[in-house]
Amino acid sequence: xxxxxxxxxxxxxxxxxxxxxxxxxxxxxxxxxxxxxxxxxxxxxxxxxxxxxxxxxxxxxxxxxxxxxxxxxxxxxxxxxxxxxxxxxxxxxxxxxxxxxxxxxxxxxxxxxxxxxxxxxxxxxxxxxxxxxxxxxxxxxxxxxxxxxxxxxxxxxxxxxxxxxxxxxxxxxxxxxxxxxxxxxxxxxxxxxxxxxxxxxxxxxxxxxxxxxxxxxxxxxxxxxxxxxxxxxxxxxxxxxxxxxxxxxxxxxxxxxxxxxxxxxxxxxxxxxxxxxxxx
Length: 280
What we know:
single chain, outer membrane lipoprotein receptor (LolB), chain A, twelve-stranded mixed β-sheet, 8 helices, 17% helix, 30% strand
């Protein structure tokens, strides 16, 4: 499997659900990142008699995300993503790290959107970096200005200001099949992730690999004092070559995020065709 093909599934999903990304383009064995264990353990507790109320509270917890003013993080499978969305200024930023210094291939991306412009800075590491298609023309380390006509609808490089949540937590919570309160602002239950393929934090290939397990994937969630979603942990079971892993999504600074800053002009170059090819 090539890096180009894998990233075509969606940058965030590829990062979070591909612990073997480094091995995809390396002939030597090893280098696959180990799944990150979530800091949040599986919640325990007796089922609440008001489980319907619990589900409604969880569904309502994502409403503030639609305001488009928050910070977020996503972690899983040895990879991380973090950033901010600031709809008032029509801007957003996401930093993604895939793999680490011990991986055959590691990649970091800094994607900035400030309407009507977008930029991405790409850095590669590891012995397999030289195998990345077109890497010699990628202008690594510079912010590459993107052609909007070439990234429209691209899950890797584009950003849809009509769908403001990179993680897709609203889509995920709509797939909840069972939920119970486990404490103040805490919930646990199961999600049918087969109904959540559009969520930015899920990879359709992973969902397919889960088979029947996809219809009942455990999760825990927390909301803040205002009832807004602050954490969602999806506990992906093992399936085929995919190890069990936790994917953790957090939200913070509702209403207090800041505008994404444009890169300095002397750090900007036009993106070459090879960049679009890599993420197509």
